[in-house]
Amino acid sequence: MGSEDAASPDVTRRQTYRIWGQETVRFSDTDAYGHVNNTSYAAYLETGRTTFARACGLPVGLKHDMHIVLARVEIDYRAEVHWPAVLDLGSAVVRLGRSSITLIQGIFVGELCVATGREVLVMVDVASRRPAALTEALRERLMRHAAPAGQDGSTS
User: Do 90 and 16 form a contact (C-beta atoms < 8 A)?
Assistant: First the structure.
């Protein structure tokens, strides 16, 4: 995979994602129109990222010499969600940089993809507060959770 993007995987398909978590829509997540407010999706993606980080052995919290920070997030809203609902949160790696990890995420209600996200995480040294290189061992663990190649038959 290196520092190149994986061939564009279909972010709306459950098969694209390698690590899964769940979240329950709270009534307080809804807005005056009765659907989940756009700001709630950022929290759902955070739950998915945290699930992903723990599954891959990434440091979560400041009890480590290194930690990950969110440097960029994009969210595409694809369908309305109403309370009550249970959300499935899928995550997969699409790019590894020197100190960064680019994830794609899908939020699903059943088979319906209701939102997708793309985030850039950066490994940071706690003492210097500067980006730190991903170790080879971590790269190997992360590559096990890479999204499959796109539908065009290309490989990552």
Answer: yes
